[in-house]
Amino acid sequence: IGTAVGHILGNVVSNAFQAINAHMDDAIKRLDTLNNYTRVMSNLGIAAQDSEKSLKVLDNGITGLPTRLDDAASAVQRFTATNGNIAASTDMFLALNNAILAGGASTETQTTALEQMMQAYSKSKPDAMEWRALLTAMPAQLKQIATSMGYTSSAMGGDLYNAIQSGKVSMNNLMFAIMKLNKEGVAGFDNFATQAKNATGGVGTRIANLKTAITRGITQIMDVIGQSNIASFFSGLSKAISTAFNYVAAFVKIIKEAVAWIGALFGGSGSTSGLVKETGSAATNVDNISSGVSDTTSGLNDATKA
Question: pTM for the complete prediction?
Fold first, then answer.
């Protein structure tokens, strides 16, 4: 019985570590994005406190949705680069994200629609491809937007599309309408925030949320250790590996010379003293490699403890 229990516990621990390893890359990406968010925004003239507030609003706004915080942060950075208003950009992303999720399309279609919309916003007008991406991802929601703005059609060539193309309706007007519907909805329909949660209430979303929770947890642990500390550790590890390979290269070179000495020795010429000397150097280099590996192992142990 004890062996069986131990085997079960071993499998549980093993699976847990596999889950952590599977999400490590995502956690590192999330950590870098979040830690760099304030720095990137500062280059756009955004105050640190406004950036920190934006992150909190984003985190609260996507909780329970299959949307990653680092993806949301990257999108807000792009919106802010266009309009210079981080608060408005944060609300824009949340509203647009909810509208797209409410459409219930595939993840690939939703990602494409978001990307196309950000491109359209940056150049102040959507082209045919960008508008079709929206129609594919959120047809019902786009119709609701048109209705709320006093238009009858959201189709390609419809009155809303033509109004945007002519400049009568700006991209900001369109985004503000989406932001309004995200909170208030239009007659007979829930707001986009509610629609998004209703459309993403399936098993797939629950699994995505579980993965996000694992990624978030790993990120929190790494954040406690510190981005700079982790970066410094891997920088030191890189130097240690480079040094070790230098010793290996030197060792290989010495072996090559030793073989040449042996050939010369059996050919009746050369000197054994040089071979002995070079062999001694090789031994020293091997010791140095061992020392480097020991230091690296010590660093890994310290990282594990942290």
Answer: 0.64
